[in-house]
């Protein structure tokens, strides 16, 4: 039976929604969950949910927390915080995966330094599967590594390839490097140095992807440094919200439009489900020794349950074994500079 | 009377839509337009539009073109191309501004090397006013400069400030630098080096902006290098199209939703007008000696007319004089490293 440690004190709706998510995960997925955080607060929610005696749930007390706005590095000194304790449970083998809706930078920090990276992985990276009309595209890295070297991007490409193949079921994923302009030789220094290395790998490397390809469905994996990936991810999310807000404002002005919106609601909700990446249960830090799943700060119970499910999928598919094998086999010696 | 040179052979709908746009510009704005390109083709459209004898329109023959997929640098060798000839008309003072829907890189090339930059400007940059629920945010640079130094970003900030103040009417624009994380010290090397310089300027510098701020309305100007800005701009556009496509697919599945969409159409069209940057008439290359306006490749007649209008606004507001003054006054000597 899989055991997942969940940081119950991180996220905008902690601990209530997180604890409720753990209850869902235990009941619906049958995983054993270690609920890490303030015991009293956690038990209060468990009681409300009539889950105090749920055999798959176990509370691990951690008196401190890391706030959303604190510098991420504090978590490494705050060894009694729910996030650090949860990560330590994974490192010590008491849990096989970690889920947190907390301070993203802090989750990254414990992922890298407490759970730790696979030996073959130079830098763990965050891959996110973004929706497009034809399916999904993995954008990697979206924030774990700010200044990258070409060899890191080559590893990210293999991580993204493995994610697309093992978790999303995409055969021989089409890999691109994010750039401006399609032709080889276009882009910034990092792209120009990485391109020839990617050509030497055994990946299905199609060359440069442009910004528009992130949502075009023409690539299955797009590689970029974590600075670029992070601003794109956050800009995309905020564009979505801005569009929704602006459309709502227009709709308010006319009762016909309000009626129309009402009739369209089921269709819009279907779309939202497809587009909303919290539905898929958070974003994995690829390359960590055990699954570390970062959910949105606004994660609700369902998102937490889905994040636990994703952690389970990484374990069931032996993702890390495949990743290590791919890193060895797909990158030839000459592309490891 | 203002004279604007329009490259009639660039863009997906050239020459028809471009020529029609020139006719609209002459008739509605009262500007003199030099229509540059294949004389025969241009006159055929003018005839269809009953504008052959329109006194404000003048055809300047240029036998060659630069295709959308050609390397931008070819334009500098192809001196008989419509784009090069149009730029030369500006350089020689026969026109006061340039509009093109053609190969963006090629327009940039003639903007930089034929029209040329103001002496005080190290590198012209592209600024785009993106819509948000509260108004507009100028993102600069979105593709003219791939690898930038801190001093370039400082100049971009002043260009964006001047654009926001002079063209968008925003008083004391709030300026940010695009980064990951809000606090000073967060970001990549370029951001970390640029931040202290921006603090020394007399701009209303608020610090780091995150990806989500591009559409949040919390900043009036956001500075980034042209690589990052370009991928964000293209990703945003493609996200918009992907969302539209995915919503349409959902709507097709239900007649109630189809009816709803019909009722909402006027509201959606209002939104689209606000969101569609072609409505505003293309994107300026800031810092060039004369206005160089790049429109979308898919620009239609209305977009071309609007681009001519924008070129006129730059001239009417003496944008370049203000920009040069601001570059001198807002950047202290110690921030010019």
Uncertain spans of chain A, ≥5 residues at pLDDT below 50? none
Strand order of the largest sheet of chain A: 3-2-1-4-11-10-5-6-9-7-8
What value does the Rg of chain A take, in angstroms?
21 Å
Chain pair with largest interface: A-B, 66 and 66 residues
| CATH architectural group of the largest domain in chain A | 3-Layer(aba) Sandwich
What is the assembly state of the chains in this entry? homodimer
- Overall, the morphology of chain A is globular
| CATH hierarchy, class of the largest domain in chain A | Alpha Beta
First CA to last CA of chain A: what distance?
41 Å
Instruction: Report the order of strands and helices of chain A.
Output: EHEHEHHEHEEHEHEEHHEEHH
Helix content of chain A: 40-55%
Strand content of chain A: 15-25%
- Domains of chain A, number: 2
| Structural class determined from secondary elements of chain A | alpha/beta
Please provide the count of β strands of chain A.
11
SS summary, helix count of chain A: 11
Largest beta-sheet details of chain A? 11 strands, mixed
Full CATH superfamily name of the largest domain in chain A: Isopropylmalate Dehydrogenase
CATH topology type of the largest domain in chain A: Isopropylmalate Dehydrogenase
Describe the structure concisely.
Two copies of one chain form a homodimer. Chain A has eleven helices and eleven strands.
Topology:
The structure is a homodimer.
Chain A: E1 3-7, H1 16-29, E2 32-37, H2 39-48, E3 57-61, H3 74-77, H4 82-91, E4 97-100, H5 104-115, E5 125-132, E6 135-140, H6 150-167, E7 174-178, H7 189-200, E8 204-209, E9 221-223, H8 226-252, H9 255-275, E10 283-286, E11 292-294, H10 301-316, H11 319-330
Parallel strand pairs in A: 1-2, 1-4, 2-3, 4-11, 6-9, 7-8, 7-9
Antiparallel strand pairs in A: 5-6, 5-10, 10-11
Helix pairs in contact in A: 1-2, 1-10, 4-5, 6-7, 6-11
């Amino acid at each position: 039976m899989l055991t997942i440690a969940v940081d119950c004190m991180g996220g905008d709706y902690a601990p209530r929604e997180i604890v409720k998510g753990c209850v869902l995960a235990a009941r619906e997925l049958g995983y054993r969950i270690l609920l890490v955080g303030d015991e009293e607060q956690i038990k209060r929610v468990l009681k409300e949910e009539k889950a105090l005696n749920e055999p798959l749930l176990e509370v691990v007390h951690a008196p401190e927390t890391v706030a959303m706005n604190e510098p991420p590095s504090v978590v490494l000194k705050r060894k009694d915080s729910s996030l650090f304790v949860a990560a330590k449970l994974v490192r010590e083998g008491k849990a096989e995966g970690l889920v947190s809706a907390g301070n993203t930078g802090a989750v990254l920090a414990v992922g890298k330094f407490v759970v730790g990276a696979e030996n073959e992985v130079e830098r763990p990276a965050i891959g996110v599967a973004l929706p497009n009309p034809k399916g999904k595209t993995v954008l990697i890295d979206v924030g774990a590594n700010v200044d990258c070297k070409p060899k890191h991007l080559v590893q990210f490409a293999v991580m993204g390839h493995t994610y697309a193949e093992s978790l999303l079921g995409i055969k021989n994923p089409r890999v691109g490097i994010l750039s401006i302009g399609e032709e080889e030789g276009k882009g910034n220094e990092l792209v120009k140095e990485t391109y020839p290395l990617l050509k030497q790998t055994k990946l299905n490397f199609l060359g440069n992807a442009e910004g528009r390809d992130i949502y075009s469905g023409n690539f299955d994996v797009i590689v970029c440094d974590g600075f670029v990936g992070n601003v794109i991810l956050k800009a995309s999310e905020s564009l979505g919200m801005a569009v929704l807000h602006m459309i709502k404002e227009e709709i308010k002005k006319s009762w016909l439009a309000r009626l129309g919106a009402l009739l369209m609601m089921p269709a819009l909700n279907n779309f939202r489900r497809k587009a909303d990446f919290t539905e898929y249960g958070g974003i994995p830090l690829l390359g960590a020794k055990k699954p570390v799943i970062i959910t949105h700060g606004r994660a609700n119970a369902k998102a937490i349950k889905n994040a636990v499910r994703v952690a389970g999928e990484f374990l069931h598919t032996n993702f890390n074994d495949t990743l290590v094998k791919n890193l060895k086999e797909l990158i030839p010696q000459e592309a490891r500079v």
